[in-house]
Model the fold of this input.
Amino acid sequence: MAKKKENQSKAVKWDYSPAPESSSHINMKDQYELFIGGKWVKPSSGKYFDTINPANKRKLAKIAYANEKDIDKAVKAARKAYKTVWSKTAPAERAKYIYRIARLMQERAREFAVIESLDSGKVIRESRDVDVPLACNHFFYYAGWADKLEYAFPNRKVESLGVAGQITPWNFPLLMAAWKIAPALATGNCVVLKPAETTPLTALKLAEIIEESGLPPGVVNIVTGYGDTGAAIVNHDDVDKIAFTGSTGVGKIIQKAIASTDKKATLELGGKSANIILEDAPIDQAVEGIVNGIFFNQGHVCCAGSRLFVQESVAEEVIEKLKHRISSLIVGDPMDKNTDIGAINSKEQLDIINRYIKIGLDEGATMYQPDCSLPKSGYYCRPTLFMNVAQSSTIVQEEIFGPVLTIQTFRTVDEAIEKANNTPYGLAAGIWTDKGSRIFNLANKLNAGVIWANTYNKFDPTSPFGGYKESGFGREGGLQGLSAYVKLK
Ligand code: NAD
Done:
């Protein structure tokens, strides 16, 4: 595999003393049941599966495996709650519940952050400073809309849909649950949510908070399981809307499954986003933005800036600085506050990333990986750069979902736009330049749902998020996130 590996950069790496976050304050059960109709119920099959800590492969808890019967129970509980309580609850009262959930989450923010990092492998800095605060803010934001829907949609009559089936991925487990549950509740819908099988714990913690908040039983039901559990939600006749975030492959299966029904859907799918550095960009800031865009969070970000395009005149400088910078990144224990790149979420995902790294080498690209040490147990991957790639290279075209960046150069802005748009995806893009006019020019021509200028991976509950082409359809977040959960008349 090392046939085209480049020489190491001479970056000096600082030795930090370990600074592990304590997990002594968290309250985690050994076994979790299904949260249906406000009660914790055993799965009808009696089956459970393990969720593990990918940083050391140790088991964290046993999780109930829901089948079609359990999903039917959850959908019935949601429908009953919708008909008897939630659709009759005054909007201002709905808002109070959502605010209460947000405040309870905030109070237990540290516990959420630790559990998120243990279950997903993401660094504690990210869970603590990004995932959990953003998740709380989504609840706060949508609580504010609950009694103002007539202003969100002026001159229209707003009706809720009924029961929303929601399916989330493993990369932002709590945040994705918040993106989905908060607008659904604000608009008067009831929910059956299934988190990803490798990261169910924070959604189950959220279920505990929902229980504590006094939300009427059945308004939110949280069920756990694998893809077949998700499929049972998608195929249930009494679900009015499917909100799915995950891979494009599964998104396509879902779209086919609901094609002959009147279910509403939002699909937030994969990405292969371009980060474009023009020659007048502030180079040091841009290098930091590139690192933030792909390497933090192990590249487990749907909108990761996984394709870098650098204008030829500054390419050498950018690549040298980038190599130097990634050589100082610390790959290791997600619970250590110094760690920059935590654990890959699962063995399956690490195998996928390694397979793509091999494909990159086999297709003749030049790889650079810093010579950093990796923990002995657990799933880890070094930050990886690939140079000398072609537009048609597999690693340029396909989503890898790991800390792997392909680097291409361009001469003119038009060439950058053409290359950036030459992908089946259209989720996000980054533009780095000193000139506002260039930002507007590029932003107008790039086929991407979200475009950042002189920054990357910035999120806010007030901003809609979503993609074009094979990155899906529909928007989550902001005012637009409400419209996915209402009928307008
Ligand atoms: P995945 O598609 O494998 O799984 C996502 C969820 O769908 C899981 O809960 C899974 O159990 C469930 N599922 C699997 N098969 C199903 C089926 N046939 N029917 C219904 N549900 C099914 O995705 P993943 O590996 O968990 O997540 C990574 C993917 O998610 C990446 O492609 C990433 O880009 C994407 N993602 C997109 C966004 C976005 O907003 N666009 C955000 C985060 C992640």
